[in-house]
Design goal:
- This protein is α/β, with parallel strands linked by helices.
- It folds into two domains: about 160 residues, P-loop containing nucleotide triphosphate hydrolases (Rossmann fold), CATH 3.40.50; about 150 residues, no CATH class.
- It is built from 15 helices and five strands.
- The protein has a five-stranded parallel β-sheet, sandwiched between helices.
- Strand 2, helix 4 and strand 3 form a beta-alpha-beta unit.
- Helix 7 crosses helix 8, helix 10 packs across helix 12 and helix 14 packs antiparallel against helix 15.
- The chain is globular, with a radius of gyration of 22 Å.
- It starts with 9 loop residues before the first helix and ends in a 6-residue tail after the last helix.
Length: about 375
């Protein structure tokens, strides 16, 4: 499959292919862009090209390619957020530093990938700087980030930037149709995905159309004055249900790993799902208030995300929260949940309370 695995990123992939073909690689890259557009896939694909032992790289059949896919290649080192805090810990960065000083296990490249690199924090970032300032020969470092503004400027300046963009609606629509969506739901799914194929797959695999209905119904009940505590409990029950789905899935790529590493990755997978779910909840609510703001200002149907519920804007806009106030409340909730690891029950209860407090304003 190779480069055909990643769609809609012709500019970024073309740049990488030319760099790999010419042998003129930077020692460090920053793959950045919106969530779910193929940045991590591209990082792993780059690793497969460099570590492949076949003739046409990546061949996808040699032991090296299979090891990269399973995460067990000895010259591929990955760090990703772990634990409830969803942070890359300083110990992970230090282990990478130690590995960078050793010879390649298979006599070729050593590839280091830091996923969600912005979660390192200042201490991890300062440790990584030493890595970037003194690169070893035959070593490639790839930082993957959806929020590069949260990385230390000194780190960003030492990396070759590769930007990954959003998909057009037409490509998302085609992808939805090829992934079991019906002719009726495909346009809505493409709209809700907002340019992210990863989000589209999440909508399809996680039954998010049903979840979206639940979340928007909670918003309606919030506007009708229902208890914020009760609404928060129902929302948390939904979040936990999504975690259970992930916990019940089998990850075939970790079968060859030691038991302790399998547990660590399983915990990280569940924690990652919690972040994805909470982030998607906030994005659904933010999308609603975005649409409400646009509707109030005379926008056409074609740029409304929640097109299937557009009648509700005219039916209930007088009772809806002020979009401006709602945006502030949602951003505060995002900051608390995803960056400060605050208590989800308290954050959601406060969010619903603030949404109720902003009713009847036209901001």
């Amino acid at each position: 499959m190779g480069w055909d695995e990643i769609k809609g990123q012709e500019s970024a992939l073309g740049f990488l292919q030319r760099s790999l073909a010419s042998g003129r690689l930077a020692h460090a890259y920053l793959f950045h862009g919106p969530e779910g557009v193929g940045k991590r896939m591209a990082a792993l694909l780059t690793a497969r090209v460099l570590l492949c032992r076949g003739k046409d790289r990546p061949c996808d059949v040699c032991p090296a390619c299979r090891q990269v896919r399973s995460g067990t290649h000895p010259d591929l080192h990955q760090a990703f957020p772990v634990g409830k805090s969803r942070r890359i810990r300083i110990e992970q960065v230090r282990r990478m530093l130690e590995a960078s000083r050793l010879n390649s296990n298979q006599g070729g490249w050593k590839v280091f990938i830091l996923d969600d690199a912005e979660t390192m924090g200042a201490e991890g970032g300062n440790a990584l700087l030493k890595f970037l300032e003194e690169p070893s020969s035959g070593t490639l470092i790839i930082l993957v980030s959806s929020r590069p503004d949260q990385l230390l400027p000194t780190i960003v300046s030492r990396c070759q930037s590769v930007r990954f963009g959003l998909w057009p609606d037409s490509l998302l629509h085609s992808e939805a149709l090829s992934s079991r969506a019906s002719d009726l739901t495909a346009p809505l799914l493409a709209s809700l995905a907002e340019g992210s194929p990863g989000r589209l797959m999440g909508l399809l695999e996680g039954d998010w159309l049903e979840g979206r209905s639940l979340i928007l119904d909670l918003r309606t009940r919030c506007g009708q004055g229902e208890s914020p505590g009760r609404l928060a409990q129902e929302l948390l029950a939904f979040v936990k249900e999504q975690e259970k789905k992930v916990a019940g899935e089998t990850d075939e790529t970790v079968g060859a790993l030691p038991a302790a590493e399998r547990r660590r990755r399983e915990e990280a997978r569940i924690a990652a799902q919690r972040v994805v779910t909470m982030s998607t909840v906030l994005e659904i609510l933010q999308g609603w208030y975005r649409d409400l703001y646009l509707f109030r200002n005379g926008a056409g149907r074609d740029i409304i995300i929640n097109r299937d519920r557009i009648e509700e804007f005219s039916d209930s806009s007088a009772q809806e929260s002020s979009p401006t106030t709602a945006f502030r409340a949602l951003e505060a909730a995002r900051e608390s949940l995803l960056r400060r690891n605050a208590s989800a029950p308290l954050v959601f209860e406060r969010l619903f309370y603030e949404l109720q407090g902003s009713r009847d304003s036209r901001g």
